[in-house]
Amino acid sequence: MAYNKHRKAAPSPETQEEAERIARATQRPGQTKEQTRLINQGIQKGIEEYKKQHKARARAADKAKKQQLRQQRPDDRNQSDEQETAPEPSSFPAWLPWLLLALSWAGFIFYWWLNQTD
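RESULT FIELD:
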């Protein structure tokens, strides 16, 4: 089955109920059922048009956001490359882990030596 772009979709039940509720709320005394039905149809079309415009705006905003992210990504890559080449100075001394390793080994050896002499 081929997709028909111009095929008119039936309004959703929620849209139909909302349009009917609004049409009845705005009904004037002496208004015929046919007039109320026409008002209902107009309200449905208005709701559908609003939803289409809202979706189009949301798509445009999403597209702009994605485009902005795409433009920022190369900048982020360049910054991360610069950060990798120029390491950040650290307040943590580089010799401290080696010192702790040496002290732990010295402690293990001392503990082993104490248990060997008993």
